[in-house]
Amino acid sequence: MTWRRALALAALFATAGAPAQQGDAPISVTITVNAGQPGKPVEPVWRFFGADEPNYATMKDGRTTLATLGQLAPDRVYFRAHNLLTSGDGTPALKWGSTNAYIEEAAGRPVYNWTIVDRIFDTYRERRVKPYVEIGFMPEALSTRARPYQHDWRPGSGDLRTGWAFPPRDYAKWEELVFQWVRHCVERYGRAEVASWYFQTWNEPNLPQYYWGGTREEFFRLHDTAIRGVRRALPEARVGGPDIAGAGDDFMSAFLAHVKAAGTPTDFLSFHAKGQPQFIETPGGGHVRMGIATHLKAADHEFAQIAADPMFRTKPIVIGESDPEGCAACQGPANAYRNGTMYSSYTAAVFPRLQALADARGLKLEGVLSWAFEYEDQPIFAGFRQLTSAGIDLPVINVFKLFARIGGRTLPASSDHQRRLAEVMIAGVRNAPDIGVIAARDGEKVTVLVWHYHDDDLPGADADVRLTISGLGSRFGSGANVTRWRVDRTHANSYAAWLAMGSPQAPTTEQRARLIEASHLVAETVRAGVKAGQATLHLTAPRSGVTLIELTPGVATQKALPKR
């Protein structure tokens, strides 16, 4: 079976547009929230994003996608991009970008040109997004193996590791390049602004077949000199690393030992964690099965190494790439989950588990970075891992909009159908679905996020949820305003709308307007009774769906949310 055929079959059976099968009895679920026991502050770990292709940020759909992200938490959203120092004319390609920041004249004199990288960072800041600065990759004039320089990679073929991936022939010039860049940023954006950014060196240096052409020791030297360049320009800059792939190795421990011995400043630690979906072929079709267990195990392996070091266990941690699988620009049948609600429900289910793993080890998880953005001028719903397609929001970006509404302090919340963390790490979610919950309170506003997740991207029974929220307090009196937002097969789902209109490859203006409308989150507001500080709500949670409930004080006139 070709991957294109498999992809088509997966789309046909995907939960993005398929209702529960007839005869599937609803799953009765009981969820309880205690609004009277606020705990620790909510950490908005979701507010980090990134992409291989930095130049997409300045293009039409890149600008609009960045604007959406910036609106979620102005000046608190961060964006990480590869290729910020790569040589070239700024023309993007899959897994490629360039800024031509550094060249050398005939006599070897460095020439710095910040025009393109300034345009990228300006685009971020104009949309209230901040840089998470990845220092890389190697300019052609500095590379120890410069030819060939630009890779010829494309989905399914080509070599990725070419001249851009190798160590510098002159570490002093590398350090000076970083120093000059950061000094320029301070002059352009201001000292306090640049001090609020993150700075880290390179990408996944523990994967020599992909992003790094040197040894481990050469990376450590590269990192030390880069951080020295940053701190020379801005002593208070926030620096860290190593943004390794979660590959089950000892690289993190070796890195911690090195920076400790070398005295290299380290304000935060970073690594990557990915899942591993598969395409399950069945007679006459097939479907995607996600690998959430692999994702969680990869993260916990790195958490364990950090927790074992007393000097570093108190440092903030950013999971610098955290995704259902490893290659955003790759297509194929195992990636058919991306356009629909499997991606959005997976995101809702995995983020709280990553936080729980860090909490269990006594670590501070500051960020979880989704390596997903957009792919400019590609076919609509082409199967890349992205937040928007052809300028149209996908279901997954709507989950981040829901995350952005959760603030204040966490609340005790439980669901009798939420799978235990240890169980999910061992076996994933392969039998009973995972119908889980998190909740928070910000003043008198109570928010409750409910997800209905299963590893298998197949239709299944909806959940009939009885949600009881106690401890609301006297301000709620006898009633509450209840607002619900949904991301599921019939709500905030542009992909389902596209499938329903026949999957047009070139939507008309009218069709595009309908797709944009279908992508929007729509608030449904009712009033519910409150008695003795307690409200009970009944709602339907479709498979692969995510729901956010928000309660504020009001007057009781209605007790049930519509179940449509």
TrEMBL record:
Region forming the signal peptide: 1-20
What Pfam families is this protein classified in? Glyco_hydro_39 (PF01229)
Q: Does the keyword Signal apply?
A: yes
Alphabetically ordered keywords of this record: Glycosidase, Hydrolase, Signal
* BP term (GO), one: carbohydrate metabolic process
**PANTHER family found in the cross-reference section:** ALPHA-L-IDURONIDASE (PTHR12631), BETA-XYLOSIDASE-LIKE PROTEIN-RELATED (PTHR12631:SF10)
The entry's protein name is: Xylan 1,4-beta-xylosidase
Origin organism is: Sphingomonas aerophila
**What is the taxonomic lineage of the source species?**
Bacteria, Pseudomonadati, Pseudomonadota, Alphaproteobacteria, Sphingomonadales
